[in-house]
Amino acid sequence: xxxxxxxxxxxxxxxxxxxxxxxxxxxxxxxxxxxxxxxxxxxxxxxxxxxxxxxxxxxxxxxxxxxxxxxxxxxxxxxxxxxxxxxxxxxxxxxxxxxxxxxxxxxxxxxxxxxxxxxxxxxxxxxxxxxxxxxxxxxxxxxxxxxxxxxxxxxxxxxxxxxxxxxxxxxxxxxxxxxxxxxxxxxxxxxxxxxxxxxxxxxxxxxxxxxxxxxxxxxxxxxxxxxxxxxxxxxxxxxxxxxxxxxxxxxxxxxxxxxxxxxxxxxxxxxxxxxxxxxxxxxxxxxxxxxxxxxxxxxxxxxxxxxxxxxxxxxxxxxxxxxxxxxxxxxxxxxxxxxxxxxxxxxxxxxxxxxxxxxxxxxxxxxxxxxxxxxxxxxxxxxxxxxxxxxxxxxxxxxxxxxxxxxxxxxxxxxxxxxxxxxxxxxxxxxxxxxxxxxxxxxxxxx
Length: 447
Known about the structure:
By secondary structure, this protein is mainly α. The chain is built from 16 helices and three strands. The protein folds into two domains: 221 residues, no CATH class; 152 residues, no CATH class.
């Protein structure tokens, strides 16, 4: 088939060349050469664009739209920091920094989406172990923010390893589950809670077949994140459960993991381990906002969540206008933790709903990519990454309207920052890579 296709293309090209040489259109009619050349140039341009922007075209539009919104949000929301007397930076400098980060992110998307999924599948285990160790390493040498060690410096740039771990746990679980699809419905991955029986043959088999490869990595991922960022640990845990569900793990095993997590969380709460005291305070504030009147509270005692709700109310349907936010001066992090509330205040609820639709659209595009992909690993990988991005966005939005307690989760591809933007872009590049390979039919023969 390919030989016949190539032969016909050569024959058409030869005929076109002969027509150009004679000044006719191949049927004896002159004057058609210029039109054919224009058509060929147009076709070449389309082919070049398709080659550069491979994969799902709708997803490309969503990504570019989110990046444009990010520029608008960061440029206006950083005015508070720019006009701070203790700051040497200007709004334009914050904008240049964000544009530089977005340029790096665009390069990362282009680079990753041209790599076949089988290539980075080979490095999945290594990347997961590295991200796990870096997240642990940050507690010993990392920089502390708000009482929690979360950052390490790499070549002068601040780097948050937990953002990398969020992505690599999806890659790792997709790889492990894809290899076990033939036996997953009968596989036990959670050992007995009676640890003194782990030496018995049945328990050793459970550890060997699923405990060490699936259960333990989930536990370790949550444990290394929870001391510095409880909400990220919860996000990783829920995401891991979703991956197990996508991978067709039995409900009995999933519920046993949930039971173990509830018991572990309760123990941390009682003993005051990690940032449980911070989580406790945020939960109390959240409950207080729902159960008591806040009308008599002085403005300087308002929490960031209350200020975000004021910003949303102030924005109304049409918004106050670009650069006209009044509450940004009162919020601690309008450019990151409360980017959605700031966006609503300036652009209105109507435009904000379009932003929400973009995140939901990422998820539905990933479902279509998942259903069309003929291989298990890339299919589960694309859907898992989309769940991570959409889930984090919804967490951020629910905090701003006080549906859940404060989490500190940024708005993917919108909030100011480097690590979150970069690894979200890499994840989107992987989804585009899967869709590109599906269109080309270039997936490897294995799972």
